[in-house]
Each structure stands twice: as C-alpha cells, then as structure tokens.
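Entry 0007
Protein: PqqD family protein
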Amino acid sequence: MNISFQVNTPQVVCETIDGEVVIVNLEKGYYYSLLKTGAEVWSGLEQGSDRLHLIDQLTQTYAASYEDIATAVDEFLDHLIREELILKVEGTTLDSPNPTTTIAPSASKPQFEKPILEKFTDMEDLLLLDPIHEVDVEVGWPNAKSA
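Output (structure tokens):
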C-alpha cells in the first residue's frame, strides 16, 4: 500500500531549528515538536516522499526490520493525520523504492527509534489571538473578536 501526503498548509506552518522541527497548527492554536526520526519523516513529507519511500529511507539508515519501521511510520503518519498536520493526497511524487534494498549491514547502523510527536497546548489562547484569526478590526490585536 503506497500513499502520498502533504503538509496541511496554510493551516500548518513549520520551521526546522538545529534538527528540531517546530510545527504550529494556526487554526487550533497547538504547536508540536519533532526530533530524530520524527524530524526525518517530516522532512521527507515536505520533500514529497510517499509512504514507501519514507520507510525505505529509514530502513537504509537504521537498524530495525522493514516491518518494525513500517509499523512505526504508519502509526506516526496516522497521528499526524489525526492532528490535522498532514493530508493524504492522490498519486505519488517520487519513484516507489524496493523494500528489500539495503545500503549498510545492520551492525553499522544506529538503532531505530520510533518517531514521536510532542504536542503543546499551553499557548493555545495566545496563538488563537493572532491577527490571522477573527479579531475585531476596530479593537485590533491582541483582543479577540467578541461573539
């Protein structure tokens, strides 16, 4: 099963700083952090990698079975979808890899760690006051528009 994804823009913005991906969902006011394999998967998504390509890249880089990596990637992608950070899209943008391809023996690869999405809601109220959201033009920012 091969599926392609895209970042849910313009609702979602992100920036990579010193290997950490910081993602903000502007509509919900949540922000997220990705490190290590999570940051690698996100980078692949931004570059247009499909599911099989993401799994293949991680299999070539880390010591773990193809099945373990595929399961971890699928769970992670499902989590990103539930958080409305990515969307499934039709078709693929990169050639699908051969899952049996290997570059280095497992002994020389670092151990695979499941990608983890850290979610922060402590700034939700402040982020939702952003001028992108409903704000009374006469009152201005950062006063939220009254209902």
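Curator remark: Residues 66-82 form the longest helix (17 residues). The longest strand covers residues 12-17.
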